[in-house]
TrEMBL record:
Cofactor(s) essential for the protein: Mg(2+)
Chief place of localization: cytoplasm
SUPFAM superfamilies: Nucleoside diphosphate kinase, NDK
UniProt source species: Paracoccus aurantiacus
Residues of the active site: 115
Keywords attached to this entry: ATP-binding, Cytoplasm, Kinase, Magnesium, Metal-binding, Nucleotide metabolism, Nucleotide-binding, Phosphoprotein, Transferase
Protein name, entry field: Nucleoside diphosphate kinase
HAMAP family: NDP_kinase
GO CC annotation terms, alphabetical: cytoplasm
Binding site for ATP: 9, 57, 85, 91, 102, 112
Pfam families, per the entry: NDK (PF00334)
Nucleoside diphosphate kinase-like domain residues: 1-137
Name of encoding gene: ndk
Reactions catalysed: a ribonucleoside 5'-diphosphate + ATP = a ribonucleoside 5'-triphosphate + ADP; a 2'-deoxyribonucleoside 5'-diphosphate + ATP = a 2'-deoxyribonucleoside 5'-triphosphate + ADP
CDD domains named in the record: NDPk_I
């Protein structure tokens, strides 16, 4: 079975939506195998999103991701990476399909409630960014 990294973003933790979002993962057959609530520093958020450093929205993204606590989780299941992306919906909530997390909860293209790894390589990197081997069973 595959694993992927999920982040419940500040707009969602602030509105107390963590449980509702986790329910959507579980209803889709994904299992939470690691979870913690942390408050990223701007440097940590910047390092996590380093691939977007040249994008015009990078500064806004780093400020947002370090503005409030987030919940970082490892999700496990068959095809977990793609399945998580399906449950999340499109980046822009206006384009997200019915029933997806971003359709139901996202505020905007920037404040879009969740992050999910987009490939096996990014999943491995992102899981290792937040969790040590001891925290993963
Ligand atoms: P994520 O990587 O968070 O799972 P994604 O893969 O759907 O989302 P990316 O293109 O990787 O989207 O962008 C990373 C994040 O940057 C988005 O989730 C969003 O929070 C923010 N972002 C992307 N495009 C914009 C934009 N045009 N304006 C503001 N913020 C944006
Ligand atoms: Mg992405």
């Amino acid at each position: 079975t595959e694993r992927t990294l999920s982040i419940i973003k500040p707009d969602a933790t602030k509105r107390n939506l963590t449980g509702k979002i986790v329910s959507k993962f579980e209803d889709a057959g994904l299992r939470v195998v690691a979870s913690k609530r942390i408050h990223l520093s701007p440097a940590q958020a910047g390092a996590f999103y380093a691939e977007h450093a040249e994008r015009p929205f990078y500064g806004e993204l780093v400020d947002f991701m370090s503005s409030q606590p987030v919940v970082v989780q490892v999700l496990e299941g068959e095809g977990a990476i793609l399945k998580n992306r399906e449950v999340m919906g499109a980046t822009d909530p206006a384009e997200a399909a019915a029933g997806t997390i971003r359709k139901d909860f996202a505020v905007s293209k920037g404040e879009n409630s969740v992050h999910g790894s987009d490939s096996p390589e990014s999943a491995a990197r992102e899981i290792a960014f937040f969790f040590s081997g001891l925290e993963l069973v």
